Structure formats: C-alpha cells, structure tokens
Structure of 1-deoxy-D-xylulose 5-phosphate reductoisomerase:
Amino acid sequence: MKTKITLLGATGSIGSSTLDVIAANPDKYELYAAACGHNVEKMLDIIRNFSPKRVAVYDKDAACRLKDACTLNNLSCDILAGANGVVEIAADQEGGYVVAAIVGAMGLPPVLAAVKRGAVIGLANKEALVMSGKLFFNEVKKYGAKVLPIDSEHSAIFQCLPQSAQENLGSCDLKGCGVDKILLTGSGGPFRTIELEKLQDVTPSMAVNHPVWSMGPKISVDSSTMMNKGLEFIEARYLFNASDDDVKVVVHPQSVVHSMVSYIDGAVLAQLGNPDMKTPIARALAYPQRVVSGVGGLDFCSLKALTFEQPDFKRYPCLALAMQASKLGQGATTALNAANEVAVEAFLNGACRYLDIASLCAQSLDAFGGESPYSLEEIFELDAKVRDYIKAAVARM
Ligand SMILES: NC(=O)C1=CN([C@@H]2O[C@H](COP(=O)(O)OP(=O)(O)OC[C@H]3O[C@@H](n4cnc5c(N)ncnc54)[C@H](OP(=O)(O)O)[C@@H]3O)[C@@H](O)[C@H]2O)C=CC1
Ligand SMILES: CC(=O)[C@@H](O)[C@H](O)COP(=O)(O)O
Ligand SMILES: [Mn+2]
C-alpha cells in the first residue's frame, strides 16, 4: 500500500524537492493533501500533476482564486482557506505522513495539529522547534507522534547516531551512546570571505545568493548571517537532547560533509553527499528503509578539497546571539526566532539594512531573553509580543 503524504509548504523549495521524491517513487508514495501560503499558480500545477484530495491555502483571496481555477480547469479538489484550513489539513487522520515545510513560526500550529493526531512527521521547519523545543517534544511523547529530521545537518547527525538514539529523538542519551561531540557543519554562506566593512552595503539579492544550496529567501538570508547555523544549533540541542557543550559548529564551505558525530573512542562518523535536499527528504520519508531520491552518489575522484574552519563570531554575530539564546533558555530562543523573522522580512522588503538584522536580534534578547514560557500558549504570546516590539524598532529606523 502507498504511503499517503500531507505536504505543508508544498509550493516552496522543500515542497518541490519533496514532490520530486514522491514522483520518483510512484509505487510507494501518493500526495494526499497539500498546503501553501499564497502561490495559486504553483498549487494549481501540483493539483494537476499529483491530484491531492485536499488543499489548504493560508491567504483567503488566493484560496478563492484557486477554487475558480480548479473549476475552470475541471480539476476536483477540496480547497480550504486560512490558518484554520492549514491546521485542518494537518489534523486530518487520513493524511498519513506529514512533511512540515512551511517557513517560520506560521508552521508551528499545523505541526502541533499533526503531532496531536500521532502522525509521523518529517520536520524541515526548524523555526517550530526553536520556538517550542521541550514543550514540542512533550506533546510528541504524549500523543505518540514520531519526528524525523529533514534539515540536512540533522538528517546527517541522525544517520551517524545508533538506532537507540534515532528512536528516542527529544530524549536520547548521547553520553550513553558514547558520543563526545556533535559537529554541526555550515557553509559560511555568501559572505565568508568578503571584507567586513562591505557587509553594511549587502543587498537582498546578494544575501539570497547562496554559494551551494538553492533555497527559499528567508533561510538563504539566515545562511548568510549564519543565524541558520544558530537556529540549527538550537534545533540540534532539542532533537538530540544535547547540551550547549555537546554541539560544535564547524565551517565547511563545500557542504559535502553534512555533519558528523565524534565518539569517545576517537571515531568520527560523517554523512556525505551531493548538496541536494532530496537526499535527506528521501531518508526521512523511507526511514528505516531507503528509496531512490534522484540524487546520484559522490564521485570521490573528482571531488575538490574538503576544508574546515572555525566560525568567526565578528563576521557572524547572529551565530553568537543564537548560542547565547540557547544558554539562556526557551524564552530567549523563542524571542530570537521571532525577532529574526521580523528583521529578515524587513531587510528583504528594504525596511532595514543588512547589519540591522543582528542588532534587532540582540535587542530581542536584551528585552525578552529572561522570559520563561511554561506552555505553548505562553510561547505564542511571547512570539507575538516580540514581533510587535521589533516591528516598532524597525519603524523607528
Ligand atoms: N530550502 C531548503 O533547502 C531547506 C529548508 N529548511 C527549512 O524548511 C522550511 C521551508 O523552507 P523553504 O522551502 O526554503 O522556504 P520557501 O520560502 O521556499 O517555502 C515556504 C513555504 O511555506 C509556505 N507558507 C508560507 N507561509 C505560510 C502560511 N502562513 N501557511 C501555509 N503555508 C505557508 C509557502 O507558500 P507560498 O509560497 O504559497 O506563499 C511555501 O510553500 C524553513 O523552515 C526552512 O528553514 C531546512 C533545510 C533546508
Ligand atoms: C540545506 C540545509 O540544510 C540548509 O539549512 C543549509 O544548511 C544552508 O546552508 P548553510 O550551511 O550555509 O547554513
Ligand atoms: Mn540545514
């Protein structure tokens, strides 16, 4: 029997790669439902090519336009609208496996809905975990859901850990497995070698021009500031129940080694591969089996040098802020994530400068870093409060 898939964020970069993996394995997977924000044209194509039973569009006008387009093209599909529609799709018991690939905090409510129906979830939406960490995994345990990492580094770490750890995400015993360190690799983004003075003049088109990966705009900017690595540091802590000292960030510009696990006996296990998200997506969909992803293996004889270096915190203050937030706790990581989302959006819209991203994030920690949300409701309240605070700071710029 085919695995039914509910794809949240179907029109994005991870969404497209997931559809490619589904298309490469038509005997194993079928698209049951899909959700997106606004992109009617892309969603219409998805309905045409994958015939999902249900689709949700966050933007209500866009949902109306999609309905009209389906009628016009004689396509049958149950179309829901708004934030509630997206949550309803995720909560649908018939929905099978959920790929969580909505960008940002907007992805958390639907992922929680999937958790509450005990779904198996391939998690790309790292912001959801950064926002809610331990509380998220409490829910996963309570409802018998299962989470598999899609973020390439976390997929790599997952693959380098023993089965006992893989089966206990959120509460695994790294020390008991003989793990000394998780080595989290990051490319360093497009500005790894640019003169520091030039960072003040960076434009959105320069920042989204990632040297290796082709991704959505928000994560591309995050990669350029290395906030992405900071969010991944926090993501790794929550996923693998790791302490701050258990995770070390290593800059690896080629993005061929996707991360490593160093054991107490001196062995280091690494996962390598061509930098293409179809590989970690296929790993998460098929686990514990493997399926074809459309990505070929590495040709070692033609590989150029693989290099590794320490991150430079002067160049990447956002990475330092994320590590500081991780030490401070859940309130700080929630606040930092919210501030970063607002700041990156403002930068992409021309409402602030590139270097303001780090200073706005620092302001969020100064103002909210000491908060201790004890419930998911308090997390959402804090997220909203920080957004208002940072939007006001942007408006004053
Ligand atoms: N791209 C990558 O290679 C990687 C991405 N990730 C993570 O995966 C997530 C997605 O990234 P990426 O695919 O690059 O992002 P994109 O910007 O390419 O795609 C974002 C997706 O989210 C949808 N979306 C946005 N807001 C809403 C909303 N309110 N309700 C429903 N859907 C919404 C968008 O719909 P629409 O376009 O229709 O508005 C789109 O389908 C992020 O959390 C990112 O950090 C992790 C590792 C690698
Ligand atoms: C592909 C993926 O997982 C991204 O999160 C990637 O890691 C971004 O590149 P950086 O290593 O530059 O952040
Ligand atoms: Mn990543």
In short: The mean pLDDT is 98. The chain has 16 helices and eleven strands. The pocket of 1-deoxy-D-xylulose-5-phosphate (ligand 2) is lined by residues 151-153, 186-187, 189, 213, 219, 223, 228-229, 277 (CB under 6 Å). Residues 170-273+300-395 form a domain with the Rna Polymerase Sigma Factor; Chain: A fold (CATH 1.10.1740.10).
